[in-house]
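Q: Could you fold this chain for me?
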Amino acid sequence: MDLTVVAYVVYLVISVALTVWVARTLSRNGRIFLADVLQGDEKLAEAVNHLLVVGFYLVNLGFVTLYLKNADAIRDTAGLFDALSVKVGVVLLVLGAMHLGNVYVLNKIRRRGIMEREQQPPVPPQGWTGTAHKGPGPWTGAPAAGV
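A: Sure. Below is the predicted structure, expressed as structure tokens.
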């Protein structure tokens, strides 16, 4: 069997397995984070989590497929390991970059939500404070002349 074909098969098996493992790990552990980002809305967190996983699979498996072709034919076992180490290493870097990008974006959304919650007053305004005298307040009339 041609060593280039062996490299393709081994690369695909390792890359797909890594992509599936990372996606499942991120999905399982990211569910809690998403629920916090989305202020406890579990159904929305589950839907967003599922959409993120689908996008993660599409981008990473698309990259793995595009990166499959090897420029040179592999002639020996050392060349096989060289080609595999470069290809799997690049896939791992892409998986890591995708993960960090997702965490960065979700953290920005989370921070914005926290800031919006903190900007609301703890007790809504309940009306104007009363005045000592009966009648219109100080801001209801026209300005006094000569002031």
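A (continued): The CA atoms of residues 37 and 113 lie 7 Å apart.
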